């Protein structure tokens, strides 16, 4: 069964950190680009970060550059999003995706209080 399962969200205060995980199964994880997206209430879904199949290349939306780091462990079929210096505007549902396969996880909620 093709599946992505996110974990690691929660409620934190401004300035704190969280590490999100996305465990993949049912496809050859190491062959695919993986993305993290977020969607806040009333806003469009936003691509936050992307990582190449080998992990060598990454990209970020400007608002998280220098604070968030995407990484992957192909031996564990898992992609991560380390989020530091969190701000209230980072509050959203975060989801991972294998975009070329159109596979999405169910999401994990991140809430940052001021």
Descriptive report:
- The chain has 114 residues and is mainly beta.
- Helices cover 0% and strands 52% of the residues.
- The protein contains no helices and 11 strands.
- The protein has strands at residues 3-7, 10-13, 18-25, 34-39, 46-51, 58-60, 68-73, 78-83, 92-98, 103-104, 108-113.
- Strands 2, 4, 5, 6, 9, 10 and 11 form a 7-stranded mixed beta sheet that branches. Strands 1-3-8-7 form a 4-stranded antiparallel beta sheet, with no helix packed on it.
- Strand 7 and strand 8 (78-83) form a beta hairpin.
- The radius of gyration is 13 Å and the shape is globular.
List the helices and strands and how they pair.
Layout: E1 3-7, E2 10-13, E3 18-25, E4 34-39, E5 46-51, E6 58-60, E7 68-73, E8 78-83, E9 92-98, E10 103-104, E11 108-113
Parallel strand pairs: 2-11
Antiparallel strand pairs: 1-3, 3-8, 4-5, 4-9, 5-6, 7-8, 9-10, 9-11
